Amino acid sequence: MSRLILSRRTLIRGSAAGAGSLMLSGCDKLFENPTFRHTLEGAEDLHKITQRALGRHALAREFTEADMSPRFRANGSREVADPVYRQHLAQHFAQWSLRVEGLVEKPLTLPLDMLKSMPQRTQITRHDCVEGWSAIGKWTGPRLGPILNIAGLKPQAKYIVFHCADLYHGRPYYESIDLVDAFHPQTILAWAMNGKPLEQAHGAPLRLRVERQLGYKHAKFVTRIEAVSSLDGIYGGKGGYWEDNGTYAWYAGI
Description:
This is Molybdopterin-dependent oxidoreductase. The structure is a single chain. The protein is of the alpha+beta class. It has eight helices and eleven strands. The chain has helices at residues 2-18, 27-30, 34-54, 83-90, 112-117, 144-151, 179-182, 241-245; strands at 97-102, 108-111, 120-128, 134-142, 159-168, 171-178, 187-190, 192-193, 196-197, 207-210, 222-228. The strands form three sheets. Strands 2-1-11-5-6 form a five-stranded mixed β-sheet. Strands 3-4-8-9 form a four-stranded antiparallel β-sheet. Helix 1 packs antiparallel against helix 3.
């Protein structure tokens, strides 16, 4: 079974390497390459077989501090231009808060200090990017599931949408997951990376870690979480920035 998991990663990395210099231009140019797109579609079929065999409740592999990568690359947005975000950044997020709303019984406003005071989970995991690189880092933050339990999901809620502070190529960045991943024990709202508060390039003050999915699902700069019954009508309607604007699959399980 491990061969199936490794095969998908190998397919992605191999196709990215075959794209050559396109790697240097990031995801936009990479996905214009037909070879890479065809390979990723094949990898998507492979991972569906793997997920059916393993089940989506299985844990992603966790590592030791000795395994941590000396450099963890930051990609996507590295800075946020929004004036409100810039003000919070200058104040070290002392007045910043996360909103939890939508199909919930009790909408929440959670200051960063409150999120830090909740029971924390620390996990050392591997981040796998569709561009073909991986890195191992340590993440700390509260689990998403208990936060959703505090808010009280309404029966109609099927998806959790993560709204972010950044614009990418002029469009709002967002992502979404279903309730299986939302309540997975390794799905956390990370405020620390490698034992230190997140830097701006890595999504300060809060980013999603959904460890059994590829890197583009790990939304950075999360400011608002919304429980919804459908993804229709939310931006492009496909559940995420790259899903709306590229050929990325909504479910990016590894």
